[in-house]
Amino acid sequence: MESLFLQQIANGLIIGSIYCLMAVGLTMIFGVMKISNFAHGDFLMLGSYFAIYTTLCLTGWVGWISAMFIAAIGVGIIGFLAERWLFRPMMLRNADIDVLMLSIGLSIFIANTAHVMFGSSPKMLIDPFRSQNINLFFFSTSLIRIFSFFLSVLAIIVLQVFLTRTKTGTAIRATSQNRNASMLMGIDTGLIFGLTFVIGSAFAGLSGVLYGTIVTITPTMGGLPTLKAFAITIMGGMGSIKGAIYGGLILGVAEALGGNYISMDYKNAIGFIIIIVILLFMPEGLFGRKGR
Amino acid sequence: MKSLWLKCGKIITLFVVLFALPSAITDRYFQHIMVLSCIYVILASSWNLLAGYSGLLNLGHAAFFGIGAYSSALLVIHMGLSPWLGIFVGAAISALFGVGLGVPALRLRGPYLAIVTIGFSEIIKLVSMNWVGLTRGSLGLSEIPPLTPIKLSQNLKIEFITEQNAYYVILIFTILTLFVIRKLVKSEFGLTLESMREEEDGAESIGINTSQYKLVIFMISAFIAGFAGGLYAHYVRLLSPETLSLHETFTVLTMVAVGGIGTFVGPVIGAVFLTVLSEALRFFEEAINFDIRMVIYGALLMVTILFMRKGIVGVYNSLFGSTAEERER
Question: Is residue B93 part of a domain?
Answer without folding.
Answer: yes
